[in-house]
Amino acid sequence: MPLTPDQIAEIESQRANPRPTLRAVSDGMEAHLYRAHQVLDHGFIRVIDYMGDDAAIVQAARVSYGAGTKHVQNDEGLIRYLMRHWHSTPFEMCEVKLHVKLPVFVARQWIRHRTANVNEYSARYSILDREFYIPAPEQLAAQSTVNNQGRGEVLSGAEAARVLETLKRDAAQCYDDYEAMLSQDGQQGLARELARMNLPMNIYTQWYWKTDLHNLFHFLRLRADAHAQYEIRVYAEAISACVKDWVPLAYAAFEDYRMGGVTLSAKAIAVLKRRLAGEAVEQADSGMSKGEWREFCEVWG
Predict the structure, then answer these.
(1) Contacts of 184 (CB under 8 A, 6+ apart)
(2) DSSP codes of every residue in 232-273
(3) CA 228 → CA 19, 104, 125, 147, 155, distances in Å?
(4) Segment 248-289, tens digit of pLDDT
(5) Is 12 annotated as a binding residue?
(6) 121 marked among binding-site residues
(7) Active site residue 169
(8) Full-prediction pTM beyond 0.85?
(9) Would you give the end-to-end CA distance of the chain in angstroms?
(10) Which of 124, 237, 273, 291 could form a disulfide with 193 if both were Cys (CB 3.0 to 4.6 A apart)?
(11) Which 8-state DSSP code applies to residue 181?
(12) Residue 171 annotated as binding site
């Protein structure tokens, strides 16, 4: 169950008592406040608070760049100009705070995005719940033969069943041992900060994660990408849906220039020019490595 009955009651209580405010408000984001969006089997993301909107980005840019932006006729055009030319500070004027429940191995990937404020549930003080991420059968895949970081062919039949059984058995056994080691039922037991080291990486943790829009876009560009690991990508996709409602103009520019665009190396530009001139160019005479050439061909054919 992603949310406990107490958490659901708290959320409904908070949503039932709106307060007037003089600060900038995004109607799209207000609809997401406190609501939990389920991710994976036991996880979720929910917006706890936010600051700013599309107008805050424009406001900051016009203070920062002054006369240099007067030729831009509207807010959308200015935001697209900022995104297109990699201006970052105006997007830092918007912030969001999320409550996220996620498997520990996903959290360890996520925390590599260091430009954020994080406070995680502490297993030194509290006992973790018996909740584990168990992949759906269609997510059980062998190692990719092309990408060292990716997945290849989906497992099936007896092999898939064997892996699922192993995951479930090991998670249950580790948690049973964790409970047995804790101080309870009159036993002296082991301290929680030590007993937790026996828990598996697929157990769920929770944290509050606060970041600005510039760094959030960087997170989404990497983690909502089709090449990202599925288990973190679905979190990024859930966050993307909230961001799209929060700052629609900025998100549209982000989709266009970051998610939908590509960055070309000098060698790639040279190859495109040669192709446009009618020359047949192959990897051997492109100046690119095999990996670069494969990625180039995925986009340009």
Answers:
(1) none
(2) HHHHHHHHHHHHHHHSHHHHHHHIIIIIS--PPPHHHHHHHH
(3) 39, 17, 33, 12, 19
(4) 999 999 999 999 988 899 999 999 999 999 999 999 999 999
(5) no
(6) yes
(7) no
(8) yes
(9) 45
(10) 124
(11) H
(12) no
Please give the structure tokens belonging to residue 155.
């497992």
Q: Is 120 annotated as ligand-binding?
A: yes
Residue 102 backbone dihedrals phi, psi, to 5 degrees:
-155, 155
By CB neighbour count within 10 A (0-12 exposed, 13-18 middle, 19+ buried), where does 165 fall?
exposed
Identity of the amino acid at 174: C
Distance CA 236, CA 241 (A): 9
pLDDT one-digit tens code per residue, 53-107: 999 999 999 886 655 555 545 889 999 999 999 999 999 999 999 999 999 999 9
Question: Taking a C-beta distance cutoff of 8 angstroms, is the pair 34, 50 a contact?
Answer: no
**Which long-range contacts does 280-285 make (Cβ < 8 Å, 24+ apart)?**
none
Beta bridge partner(s), residue 257: none
Annotated catalytic residue, options 223, 258, 274, 275:
223
Q: Rg of the Cα trace of the chain? A: 24
What residue type is 175 in one-letter code? Y
Contact 52, 93 (CB under 8 A): yes
